[in-house]
Design brief:
The chain is α/β, with parallel strands linked by helices. The structure holds adenosine-5'-triphosphate. Adenosine-5'-triphosphate (ATP) binds at residues 173, 176-177, 186, 188, 191-193, 196, 212, 214-220, 578, 581, 612-613, 721, 723, 751.
């Protein structure tokens, strides 16, 4: 455990001056590069016209410089943070957020990107395995000013020998860990620890599972891994994109600054509720309903629900065709339906087969009526007549409408909405009365995150009838060409005036129509897609990502994993989570269960064992809760103590709000700059939230509380992945009672604190917290 600054040595004034000079020179170089990128960007924005290829090239160059500029701006803070001195090499190596090279011809490295192999010893070198490093120096800066230097001498004979072997950069680490929380996660690039570094720099292919207790840095590692992968496999991943899936939008906001501070922006951060384009699923539903929707049983239910939309009449329907009644028999439609189903194509695609087959049979029916030889010979209609009959049937709106009714074109939203709001449909799809009671809801209900994998599954079952899409694209292109022809005619029409003015020979002067026809004109003006891969991926359900990172991965249901696996057929994935913290009923408690079906044994498990967030005093309390979740599980080891004991206080139920507010005031006064989290059972959220807001102005409560506030009240579910300097857990017995995974929820709740933990209870303390009695 870190208790003091270990092997940190004080630095001389001369060191400070020379490091400041180096820092200043680095910023000068950064300014120079920024100016160059800015000038090039301006130049490109002034250019216009050119060939389509030229414009595409120009757009790529523009995007390149815009990205460079954004990158230079984003590293303005903390550009430089480390220096390595080697036993044998004469020159030090400086480590920072990005790589910078000197302007000279040799392009000497001035600053090494933390992700480059040359920077790795900064994170791995220890006194026992110094890897040639004599001294590791952490440089602290504020803006462009050097504010501190922490040195670690790795040559044992030269140091005082008090440094810890399992922690690198003790002083810098301790200062990061004890700093006040801000409501936004910070990057850890200056103090990545060896076990974390191994995960971050793991290769791109395959499934990597990172299991770690609370506070072991799983989220931090996941984000730094994204930055590392984008740096190392830039070309591949810029094209295909990286997805980071987080548990909820509050969490995404909490982590939103980390990648930009690492100069990486091209990553799609999303929740499960965002994974179906056009739907932002934010509605809430009972955990048991979400659990049922997340189970693989829904595959059969959805399959049946789609099949139920492929109907036939009791006996027949009659439509008017060409002035005659046309009878469409049940048998005709049954045959057509069987043929379409046999094709095993998605519903909307198989519809073509259904229609073709039905029309084929109906055309024979008509042929028999009008082409029958009165003398009993062969039918008098030729093949051409039959083809014409089929064409007429196909174009007949009444026939179309009848066939549409029996095999309609369907959308995922329509099928799911109809299914979930209709008890008969649910029953017919194979749901038991208990399941129906859980699933049935109003037609107007909003989408929930657990609906999204169902919508995605339905999109697969329904498919898209490309013929309609292609027809629409062709129609749009024809319309564009017609428009372009109009434009060119106007150009052509206005030309004669110029000729007359100039007195020139008409034929000798090129007109717009001589150099470009309408088709080329359209091509030239087709919009170049300037969106990043992440932006395009967000709008495209079928986008295939180059890498997918899942945080709080233990919470995802089997149906959600199916969706993710579809987005990542290469199975290049990182899943980080903790099976002891699972609170969703459809979540998992073993990683085998999740990955075996997709990659069999071919996944790697790495465990993180050190808790950077929660001090040892708090972790001792959490350990008892964990033992009750599963006696086989061991909590991660805290890297530090806070010197503050957790406490518990019993209050009368009627006085809970008043007592809570008194504690909030006390805690807030203890750490004015820090953040206080109040974690409550769902049943008390609304009432305590209202009382709190009335007494503590500015406190954040509700569906998506703003974490930048100093006081935030939320449920444990909302607090997943978050942390606060100080945490008050209210009514732990109710937190336990509210869910079959209540003990895991309590474990999550007590491990959110970086410094202080208090428990307010209205009944006897639950046994798992008896150490606080
Ligand atoms: N190497 C490190 N240097 C500095 N801070 C670190 C380091 N590793 C982790 N931390 C900090 O520890 C805290 C916990 O990290 P993080 O939220 O990533 O943990 P986690 O494993 O995802 O936790 P949980 O399972 O509870 O969500 C964060 O404040 C993070 O910045």
């Amino acid at each position: 455990m870190i208790a003091r600054k270990g092997a940190t040595l004080s630095s001389s004034n001369a060191d400070v001056d020379s490091e400041q000079a180096y820092l200043t020179a680095l910023y000068q170089r950064l300014d120079q590069l920024r100016e160059q990128a800015d000038n090039r960007l301006r130049g490109i924005l002034l250019e216009a016209g050119g060939t389509p290829q030229g414009r595409t090239q120009r757009e790529a160059t523009r995007a390149h410089y815009a990205e460079q500029l954004a990158q230079f701006n984003s590293v303005e803070n903390g550009l430089l943070f480390g220096r390595l001195d080697f036993s044998t090499a004469p020159h030090p190596r400086y480590i920072g957020r990005i790589g910078l090279f000197a302007e000279d011809r040799d392009r000497d490295p001035l600053l090494v990107d933390w992700r480059a192999p040359a920077a790795r010893s900064f994170y791995l070198a220890t006194a026992v395995n110094p890897d040639g490093v004599r001294r590791r120096r952490h440089l602290r800066t504020r803006g462009r000013v050097l504010t501190g230097i922490d040195d670690e001498v790795l040559d044992i004979s030269a140091g005082d020998g008090t440094g810890r072997e399992d922690v690198t950069g003790e002083a810098a680490l301790l200062s990061a860990l004890t700093a006040n929380r801000t409501g936004r996660m910070r990057d850890i690039v200056e103090t990545i620890q060896a076990e974390q570094d191994e995960v971050i720099r793991s290769g791109l292919p395959g499934v990597l599972v990172v299991q770690g207790g609370p506070g072991t840095g799983k989220t931090a590692v996941a984000l730094h891994r994204a930055a590392y992968l984008l740096y190392t496999y830039r070309e591949q991943l810029t094209r295909t994109g990286v997805l980071i899936l987080g548990p909820n939008t509050t969490f995404l906001r909490y982590i939103s600054q980390v990648l930009p501070s690492l100069a990486e922006t091209g990553v799609l951060l999303a929740t499960l509720g965002d994974m179906f384009p056009g739907v932002r699923a934010r509605a809430v539903e009972p955990p048991a309903t979400a659990a049922l929707k997340g189970s693989l049983h829904m595959l059969d239910v959805l399959d049946n629900a789609v099949a139920d939309r492929q109907t036939v009449p009791d006996e027949f329907v009659e439509v008017d065709h060409d002035g005659y009644p046309l009878r469409i028999d049940r048998a005709v439609l049954e045959d057509a339906r069987s043929a379409a189903r046999r094709s095993e194509r998605p519903h909307n695609v198989a519809r073509q087969i259904f229609v073709t087959e039905a029309i084929h049979q109906l055309s024979r029916q008509i042929a028999e009526r009008i082409g029958a030889d009165p003398l009993g010979g062969e039918n008098l209609l030729s093949e051409a007549d039959l083809a014409e009959t089929r064409r007429e049937l196909r174009e007949d709106v009444d026939v179309q409408a009848a066939l549409f009714e029996f095999w309609p074109v369907l959308t995922p939203r329509q099928v799911l909405r109809d299914l979930l709001s209709d008890a008969d449909r649910l029953e017919s799809a194979g749901c038991t009365p208990e399941e129906r009671a859980l699933l049935l809801r109003d037609r107007s209900a909003g989408w929930t995150p657990a609906d999204v994998p169902l919508l995605d599954e339905l999109a697969e079952l329904l498919g898209i009838d490309d013929t309609l899409k292609v027809r629409e694209q062709q129609r749009q292109r024809r319309a564009a060409i017609e428009y372009a022809e109009g434009v060119l005619e106007i150009v052509e029409g206005s030309r004669s005036l110029d000729f007359e003015d100039e007195g020139a020979e008409k034929d000798e002067i090129l007109s717009a129509l001589d150099v470009v026809d309408a088709g080329a004109f359209v091509e030239r003006h087709e919009v170049i897609d300037t969106r990043t891969a992440a932006e395009r991926a967000a709008a495209d359900r079928t986008w295939v990502f180059g890498h997918v990172i899942v945080d709080e991965a233990q919470e995802l249901s089997p149906m959600a994993w199916r969706l993710l696996m579809r987005r990542c057929p290469s199975r290049s994935m990182t899943a980080v989570g903790d099976v002891a913290q699972t609170s969703e009923l459809a979540g998992t408690t073993t990683w085998e269960q999740v990955f075996e079906p997709y990659v069999a044994q071919r996944w790697r498990l790495v465990e993180l064992s050190v808790n950077y967030r929660t001090p040892s005093e708090v972790m001792a309390v959490a350990a008892d809760v964990l033992a009750a979740v599963d006696p086989a599980l061991r909590p991660p080891r805290s890297v530090r103590s806070a010197g503050v004991s957790p406490w518990a206080r019993r209050v009368a139920p009627a006085a809970l709000a008043v007592e809570l507010i008194a504690d909030v005031r006390k805690e807030a006064a203890l750490s004015e700059e820090g953040r206080l989290g109040i974690l409550v059972p769902e049943s008390l959220e609304a009432s305590l939230g209202a009382e709190l807001v009335a007494s503590v102005p500015g406190a954040a409560v509700g569906e998506q509380p703003d974490l930048l506030n100093h006081v935030v009240l939320m449920t444990v579910r909302q607090a997943k992945g978050l942390e606060f300097d100080s945490v008050l857990v209210v009514a732990p017995d109710e937190i336990i009672a509210e869910s079959p995974r209540g003990l895991s929820d309590l474990y999550v709740a007590v491990t959110r604190a970086t410094r202080r933990l208090g428990i307010l209870h209205t009944t006897d303390l639950p046994k798992v917290l008896s150490s606080l009695a």
